[in-house]
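Example record used in the benchmark description.
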Amino acid sequence: MTVAEAVSLLEGQFFCGKENGDMEVLSACGADLMSDVMAFVKERVLLLTGLVNPQVIRTAELLDIHAIFFVRGKAPSVDMIDMAIESEIILCGTKLPMYVSCGKLYQAGLTQGGTRQIQ
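Model output (structure tokens):
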């Protein structure tokens, strides 16, 4: 699934990175705790969160996440958008709650990625 397809499916919008909307994602992670995201993430993941602060962008940079979807009508600040543009991270949003968003993505074939192996 591409990020643009996810935006369409979730009746969402792009905040930045629309030109990269054809980027394919293979799994999704829905979390508001960035420590949970750090334990979960795999390659080409779409992060869904209701947390709107710079820590989300920093976590995405650290874990090589290139697409973030804000749920429940949340919107990133201008500073967050600037950080995302600089790091080439796509930011999107939907008015749908996290549960419904994750369910729609799963139903459309986007599966979860499992947890990372901690050595």
